[in-house]
Amino acid sequence: MKDLGRALLDKVDQIIDTWVEAVRRDLDIESARGLTYEAVHNGLPDVLEAVATLLTAAFTDQDQEFEENSLEHGAVRAEQGFDTAEVVREYRILRNVVLTALEPELSTGTVAEALEAVRKIDNVLDEAVMISLENYVQHRMRMAEQVQGQLLLTNQELSRLVQTQKDEVSFLAHELKTPLNSIIGFSSLLLRKQRQQLAQATGSSLEIEQIERIVNNGRQLLRMINNALEVSRRGDQPINLTIESVQVTPLIQTVVEALKPIAQDKPLTFVIDCDRAPSEVSTDALRLQQILTNLISNAIRYTDEGTISIICYTAEAERWAIAIQDTGRGISPEDQSRVFEPY
User: Fold this and answer.
1) Do 254 and 289 contact (CB within 8 A), yes or no?
2) Distant-in-sequence, close-in-space partners of 86: CB < 8 Å, separation ≥ 6
């Protein structure tokens, strides 16, 4: 059978063109939508050349490792907002493209040789995707550290404003400091844990998902904080709402997932009931998320065990509602009349 690694190198341009177009058309890779050919192409030649080199080594029983530049594909995809499932999907597409391109060479050998060749191709691509994902995780960790640093700086500014303008921004501290400190604390814990697991080669997809959650929710919280601080600087000027069409169920799920780590030491069950919810609503997504974060975090804070339910439903024509219920100790009757007073 011909040298498949050499054949692969000879067909790099053809394979990459087919690969890029397939990735851009694939409905399961949403992050590639809207990206230019060059953006999707970025990093792929290095990956393919490394695969070809390793494939040649596999057929000659030589030890060969991926070169460092082949690892950049994972970092590129992390920067572009791909998730891990989309990166894995890219490599599945690559396998099909490679096998199709090498079909003439595979047909030159016996059936046994062809099957052995396919097995070695699979092994090489498995190694490629694992290395790419490792690079992806490392890049996400650096992004998480950057977000953590930004959160710390913003927290310092918030504390300074509370001291100098206590009457004007005390409500900001109440609304923002709890989720802010939670994200900072859990991001530090997870980053330390991830470093240990990567060093021991025992990292799992769960840790990757948690890092993703830190980065995404950290950025969302930063937007909330910066928006609120800007409002406090403008004084009594009216707040401009950004009304847009929002899918309410995914928004509720995002808030709940972001706050679950706060409740990890409590025997709490979260119930999301959106069966009667409208599919889309017109609202300010940032403000709605801020309100839900406050209500659910309070429910967690004052519920030691039991259930926290988030119910969204259509109340009547053109009206919808969200209700937060918990089995906590509640508010004493004498304090209930004061819940809407400034604090």
Assistant:
1) yes
2) 28, 29, 30, 31, 32, 77
CA–CA distance, 298 with 266 (Å, rounded to integer): 14
CA 100 – CA 172 distance, rounded (Å)? 59
Q: Looking at the whole model, is its pTM more than 0.70?
A: no
CA within 13 Å, CB half, 218: 29
For the chain, 343 residues long, give each residue's pLDDT as a single digit of tens: 667 777 877 888 888 889 888 888 888 888 888 788 888 887 777 777 777 776 666 555 555 555 555 557 788 888 888 888 888 888 888 888 888 888 888 888 788 888 888 888 888 788 778 878 888 888 877 777 777 666 766 666 666 665 566 555 556 555 665 666 566 556 666 666 666 665 665 555 556 666 666 766 666 666 666 666 665 555 555 667 889 999 999 999 888 887 777 787 789 999 999 999 888 889 988 888 878 887 888 888 889 999 999 999 998 777 899 999 999 988 888 888 877 765 4
Angle at CA 339, nearest 5°, toward 302 and 161? 85
CA dihedral of 277, 278, 283, 285, whole degrees rounded to 10: 60
